[in-house]
Amino acid sequence: MIWIFNSMPLIYLSKVSLSWIFEELEGEKLIPETVYFEVVVKSKERGEIDAFIVDELVNRGIFKVVKVEVLSWLKEVEELHKGEIEVLSLAKEMNGIAITDDSIAREIGEILGVRVHGTLYLIFLMLKRGKMNKRTAVDKVNEMIKRGFRLSAEVYSEFLKLIDSIL
Length: 167
Prior knowledge:
Order of helices and strands: EHHEHHEHEHEHHH
Mean pLDDT: 92
């Protein structure tokens, strides 16, 4: 399995001490160069702790930073940032899973035939594997929201319902 990460899952899982999730994922974990620059290089300048955590995971070989040849027509989608374009292009090229929380990127990923998931998916995956309990999952999502993670009331409500449905 090949996982391609956009910035928000990297940032927010690291901010709330859930970066261990990345190590639990089987397969190759890739970060496009633009995403790395945004998450690590620029954020280190601001002293963001998550930047140092992600960089350490790259240095340990958990993530590989890659140069991406983007799908030319994706450059025309004004609503997408360069990092999202690289994530979707790489996921399409490598038949990987794009991990992004941007709703437009997710919609375009589906149009491309790319499997697209977000941060909450990774948390659910750890719950289902018994690596995290329900209380921790809810607490960590609440902490992410307090730190700026954007989640609509509808999505949050659905998250809580799904948590309750897990045995």
